[in-house]
Structures are given as C-alpha cells and as structure tokens.
Design brief:
single chain; six-stranded mixed beta sheet; 10 strands; about 10% strand
C-alpha cells in the first residue's frame, strides 16, 4: 500500500469538489423504473400490496385508502430522524414506498427531524438513546438532506415525472419558536396518559426494561403527532408513511388530527379531516437477521461508507429464499419481469440471474451506472482482472479487505527497487530466496500480471487506482 503524494491528494480533492459542485440530478440511469411512469393513482395500493410494501394502514380497509388516493393527488410525508449522517439499506424501504407514491402522481414531503432528533424515538429500543449534541444533529440534518435530495430527484427524473417534486422540511423550524406552555396548551391537552402508556414503544419499556422510560422519550409520540397536524395545515399532507415500528407514533398523529378537527367542527363548522397512516414492514432475512446488516455492520447508501462493490456483493449474496421478495421491495422492475426472474431462478438457481438483477438494480439506483461498472470491475480483480484507472481507493481497499497491507514511502518507488527486495520489504514474502522461487514458478504477480523476470524493478507505472497509490502483489 503506497501512500499518495500530497500533490496528488490535493488534485484529487479538488476534482472531487468540482464534481460535487457540478453534479446535476437525474444523471443516473434506471430504465426499469421508467416503466412505472404514468401509472394512475388507482393502481397504487394494489402495487404496494403486490410488492409487499404495505404492512398496515389506519384506513378501515385498503379500498378506503385507495378511494382517498384516487380522488386527487395527495401530499404524503415520511419522517427521518438525523441519528446518523447517512442512511443505511434498511432506511431505503420506506423511501421506496414514498417513491411509488411519487411515481403514481402524489407529492412527497420528507421531514428531517432536527427537533425530534434531539429527543430520541423509543420505538424498537429496549434502552434510552444517548442524547446527541445539537451541532451533531445539525450536521446530520444537512448531510441527510443532500443525500435524499439527490436520490429522490434522480428517481423522479428517471420516471419522467415533472409534476410532483419533493418538499423538504425540518421540524426544528416550528418547534424552536414554540414555548413549553404553548405546546402543553395547544397540543398536550389532546393526549390522554392512558392512551400514551398503551403504545407498544412505551409499554415494552415499562414492562421489560429495568430503567423504564424517561419523560423525554415518553413524550416523543406527542411531537411526531403534532408534526402530522402541522404538515396537514402547511403542506396539506393527508398520508404519513413509516416503518411498522412507527405505528404508535403514526396513530397518535391521526388521533390528534381527528380531535383537533372535531373541535374546529364544533367551533367553526370545519368538516372532520380524513388522514391516513401507512406502514411498511421491518425486514428480516430468511435466516432471521436484520436486512441491511453485513457481519453486524450497517450497509450504507453512502458510497464513502459502503463502496458500490460492497453493496453489490452484499445484494449478490442474498439468500435464495429472499431474492424474489427483495426484487419486489427494492427495485422498480415490473412485477411480470420479476415473475420471469423467479421462474428462471427456480429452473437454474446456479445462474443467479435474480441475484444479479437485484444487485445491479439497487446499485444503479443508488450510485448510477458508473457505480455498477465499478462494482463489476472490482469483482473481476479477485479473478485476475485488469486494474482499471477509474477504480478508487475505496474500491481497491474493499476488494482486498482483510489482505495484509503495508505502507512504503513514495520516494522508494521513485528509486525503482528490485521486485525481489520490494516483495520482502512489503512482507509479501519472508525472504529473497522465497521471492525468487515464486518468480521462477510463475507464482508472483504485480497487479494481477505475472512477474516473469527477477530483474524487474518497481516504478511509478506500477501504481494503480484513480489516485495511483496502490501496488498489489
């Protein structure tokens, strides 16, 4: 492992900055997603159900929800708390549902919880969250917005849908000027403690946790409920999306809106407002593991945290029992095309056509065709493939993760050391005699190219990667 020179690093960072500033949305290809464009709202609930994206709804039945969505384009909101500076694969599922709403003509609203992130959602947790610093939350809010804007705008453009752009909001904007007294008078009076205690997120902590639950996290549901009310007034949001663990918070919002509109109906003649909650499933694999985790670590949507190669490989290794379900959930491939892949997989599972389709579709959606190409080129390195100049440091490191590495000053490369000496210094072999025996037997390679002569000298031409900082022996 040869450390990059300062000038090369400076040039690389400048190039990255230029690319970042000049990025335009819609540059990624997702031809299969375009097939969904133009679908009417009347098909949406059936589509979500067929794909397994509809876990539950507060509507009395799916026909009621479908009637609401078919009447006119609706505003639909999804909340994301900034507990990290990037999203992981598990976060993608509710975003996929939101994208389907967008494709079918509805307007997506994404709420990034600058305020609720300071409190901490108790849903799905058996212990208290550690409170984050306000500066960390603000940084996460900004980074998540950039990532979500890029992802959702790409999907929108790739579906040729120009009528329903994404609106981003931050609940810190309406909570920061509100006093505690105002919140308790205007919002808190509509909640009953008995109902709040009955929520799964609260009851499980009260019963199963020695430390119980703090008032801070206990009150979280009132904040998310008020978010729904606020967005109904401000953005005309009548549908809230979320994971199935959000059911208690979502129903609290629906209840709050019904109570407040009932009060207005008595006072002002306002008709009771119809609002709905829709949840998507929380996924586990056929093996019982949480989907989106690799060896206990999150699989991130950010290429700087999880390279396109690592993402591709994770999806390629999907359990045979899960692959068709994941194609329905995480791609926009038409259902009849997925059925064909399912049939082909059943007939010849060793060909892994369904797995490759899943890996390519999701990698393309998140990282563009360039990301797919990088992943494929990286994969070929393990089988003697040629090192491509476009492969980044992250690509090469992820491919050779776990392989012994060593650092050698760049000046030593300029001194053109002999391959035998270089192999010993890097630790690839224990002695010069071992290196010579390997070369004679045809077993020593530089960047996947066989070394035929022990007189070969290392030079800068042997450096590979987009920043020319690696030599692979």
């Amino acid at each position: 492992l040869i450390p990059r020179r300062q000038e090369r690093e400076k040039e690389r960072l400048h190039a990255m900055l230029r690319r970042w500033l000049s990025t335009t949305v819609g540059r990624r290809g997702a031809s299969s997603a375009a097939a969904a464009a133009g679908r009417s709202s009347s098909e949406l609930v059936n589509e979500l159900t067929a794909r397994g994206l509809l876990h539950a709804t507060t509507a009395k039945d799916t026909a009621t929800l479908q009637s609401h969505l078919s009447a006119k384009p609706r505003s639909v909101y999804l909340g994301v708390d900034p507990t990290a500076d990037a999203l992981h694969l598990g976060n993608l599922l509710p975003l996929m549902a939101l994208m389907h709403f967008q494709i079918h003509g509805h307007r997506p609203v994404v709420l990034i919880g600058g305020a609720t992130g300071m409190i901490g959602d108790p849903s799905g947790r058996d212990s208290e969250r550690k409170l984050m610093a306000a500066s960390d939350i603000e940084r996460n809010v900004q980074r998540l917005r950039v990532a979500l804007e890029k992802l959702l705008a790409d999907i929108k453009n790739n579906n040729n849908n120009n009528n329903n752009g994404v609106t981003f909001v931050n609940n810190f904007d309406w909570y920061s000027p509100m006093s505690v007294v105002d919140f308790l008078r205007d919002v808190g009076k509509h909640f009953r403690v008995s109902s709040m205690l009955a929520k799964d997120s609260v009851r499980s902590r009260m019963q199963d946790s020695d430390e119980g639950i703090s008032f801070t996290e206990f009150a979280y549901q009132t904040l998310q409920a008020h978010d729904f009310w606020h967005l109904l007034q401000r953005e005309q949001c009548t549908v809230q999306l979320g994971g199935s663990d959000q059911w208690g918070n979502i129903t609290a919002g629906c209840d709050l809106i019904h109570k407040r509109t009932n009060a207005q109906e008595r006072d002002d003649g306002v008709v009771k407002q119809s609002v709905f909650g829709v949840t998507v499933p929380l996924l586990t694999t056929a093996q019982g593991a949480k989907f989106g985790k690799s060896a206990g670590n999150a699989v991130w949507l950010d290429a700087d945290k999880t390279s396109p190669y690592e993402l591709y490989q994770y999806l390629l290794q999907t359990d045979d029992r899960d692959v068709v379900r994941m194609l329905k959930l995480f791609t926009f491939l038409p259902l009849d095309e997925i059925a064909q892949l399912e049939q082909a997989h059943g007939a010849a599972p060793e060909k892994r056509d369904a797995h490759r389709a899943l890996a390519e579709q999701v990698t393309r959606m998140l990282h563009g065709q360039e990301g797919v190409d990088r992943a494929l080129r990286s994969s070929q390195l393990l089988f003697g493939g040629k090192f491509d100049a476009s492969l980044t440091e992250a690509d090469i490191v992820s491919v050779f993760d776990g392989v012994p590495q060593s650092e050698v000053p760049y000046m030593e490369v300029l001194d053109a050391p002999n391959i035998v000496d270089f192999a010993v210094e890097c630790g690839a072999v224990k002695s010069k005699s071992e290196a010579r025996r390997l070369i004679k037997a045809g077993g020593l390679y530089i960047n996947n190219e066989r070394v035929a002569d022990a007189g070969v000298n290392i030079s800068p031409e042997h450096l590979v990667g987009s920043d020319e900082s690696f030599i692979v022996l």
